[in-house]
Amino acid sequence: MQKISVIGAGSWGTTLAVLLGEKGFDVKLWTRRKELANEIENKRENTQYLPGIRIPSSVIADHSLKTVLEGSEIIISAVPSEFLRKTTREVKRYFKNQIVVSVTKGIEHSTCWRMSQVIQDELGKQVKIAVLSGPNHAEEVSIKMPTASVIASKDNNVGKLVAGCIATASFKIYQLDDVVGVEICAALKNISAIATGICDGFGFGDNAKSSIITLGLMEMNNFGRHFGAKRGTVYGLAGVGDLIATCISRHSRNRFFGEQLSRNKSVEEIKKSMHGMVAEGIPTTKAVYEYSKKHNIEMPLTCQAYEVLFEKKNIKHAIKDLLNLI
Question: 175 - beta bridge partners?
């Protein structure tokens, strides 16, 4: 039986731990807070991040990284992007050349690096790594709604092994080698989701929202191609598929964040109301905006999103300026 460590007990990390536990794997789930680990062990449920889903006994929750990583063969990294580097640095002490699967969708602000690059920077270039992405809301995967996603790895054997571990009858996995494209798409769709949330908040309707999604897809393609992303990735599950799901879903944290912004709530107020959930589109917007300005990549939607989020620009003025720019 393969031993798998899941680092991060948010909704997605917990969902994957449950999925793997139900498949018969020996799973250890790391939580930063000791009280959350105790709650999961006692109630067999993560009431804060994944309420209503029973966690099987094959999943052991613990706040000790040493205990969670001991003897594991695969590490699933489900830590929010802003905490990924620090957590991976802590993981390094107990790292024994396991396969690492990154499931975080974001870009590091200080470097504009993808999540797999951050992991490799901390664990070494030789690390065997795969990336899981696609339209895969935890709320639906956890109740076994039909879902299709992708596993991307430069090593075909690693990708095949990870896909085999994670795939189920209701969770279809496709294997790709375009790690760059998959991670760029995973990050940029969150910027568009914030913008479509603003559309929903103002009641602009489907026409405006579809225009925002289309513009977001163009920016995803422009930014991705700069880094060598494949066209097929952008227009596949990891790109347009995830973009649509994130922009229209009631489960989307980033869409929710945008909707709350349109109601004149501050960034701090919205973060507090999310009770520990993270809208990855916020740091991603800053990273992508700064990089695109430096390298002359045309990103009008990202530009207006940045000015709203970080320069307190009036949202209605931003919408007007966006219409004039495109």
Answer: 151
- Count the neighbouring beta carbons within 10 Å of the beta carbon of residue 132: 27
Measure the CA–CA gap between 226 and 123, rounded to whole angstroms: 26
Which string of b and e fits 19-31 if b means at least 16 CB within 10 Å? bbbbbebbbbbbb
The arrangement of strands across the sheet holding 3-7 comes to 59-62, 26-30, 3-7, 74-77, 99-102, 129-133, 147-152, 171-176
pLDDT, one tens digit per residue, over 148-168 is 999 999 999 999 999 999 999
CATH architecture of structural domain 3-177 = 3-Layer(aba) Sandwich (3.40)
Residue 28 among the catalytic residues: no
Classify 100 as helix, strand or coil: strand
Mean pLDDT in residue range 28-54: 96
Q: Give the pLDDT confidence of 302-320 residue by residue, as tens digits.
A: 999 999 999 999 998 998 8
Write down the catalytic residue from 128, 189, 209, 286. 189
**DSSP state at residue 278:** -
Could you report the per-residue pLDDT of 98-107, keeping only the tens digit for each? 999 999 999 9
CA–CA separation, 170 and 168 (whole Å): 5
Least Cα distance to 129 among 138, 121, 137, 120 occurs for 120
pLDDT in tens, 58-84: 999 999 999 999 999 999 999 999 999
Tell me which CATH homologous superfamily contains domain 188-325.
N-(1-d-carboxylethyl)-l-norvaline Dehydrogenase; domain 2 (1.10.1040.10)
